[in-house]
């Protein structure tokens, strides 16, 4: 799926701060990005992060309590580095009131649903509205349909999700933390987007590979 290369980086520590002042750092060669994951419990947020940071999948992943912090640095093709400071929030209702602590000051919000669960898609829409009301005005939002490996039980069509994402100025991508499909593309694409000062790139796998240069899967940093 897709043709983007991945640049596995190093886990650079657990020193996240909640002050939310700095979202994207100014050094153009070393970008620092505060990223928050939101979405219903069980959609796979923690598994997406685990796959991205450690390259692993945990079929017995436990529910997140409060939130957890991890960071990961990737290198783009011209050796610009992007350090993601990732807040993985708890999807259970009882933690919903804590979410603003984590999305405040975030440069990127990754809103996740499970493609087999229409309820989780509705919950994703709730989070999008919440971010539109209370998030940073220039927050970058990605809509992520996870568990794409379970396509035989699909209940949310990619077309519906894509249309919703377009209407709300979001990126859209389907991932599988289990098979690793599109996980690196999700983060790498976010990094390239921020690096290019938010120049629009399409996240849809294009038909003009390898060189349309306008979608994440073909883009090369000059
Ligand atoms: N088949 C499949 N299962 C997945 C995938 N991602 C996560 N899961 C499973 O879904 C369950 C929930 O995953 P978590 O990552 O813990 O979910 P979460 O969104 O972090 O849930 P909360 O922490 O409660 O908000 C676990 O049993 C995972 O193994 C995926 O891409 N495919
Ligand atoms: Mg979790």
UniProtKB/TrEMBL annotation:
<protein>
    <submittedName>
        <fullName>Ras-related protein RABF1</fullName>
    </submittedName>
</protein>
<dbReference type="Pfam" id="PF00071">
    <property type="entry name" value="Ras"/>
</dbReference>
<dbReference type="InterPro" id="IPR027417">
    <property type="entry name" value="P-loop_NTPase"/>
</dbReference>
<dbReference type="GO" id="GO:0003924">
    <property type="term" value="F:GTPase activity"/>
</dbReference>
<dbReference type="InterPro" id="IPR001806">
    <property type="entry name" value="Small_GTPase"/>
</dbReference>
<dbReference type="GO" id="GO:0005525">
    <property type="term" value="F:GTP binding"/>
</dbReference>
<dbReference type="InterPro" id="IPR005225">
    <property type="entry name" value="Small_GTP-bd"/>
</dbReference>
<keyword id="KW-0547">Nucleotide-binding</keyword>
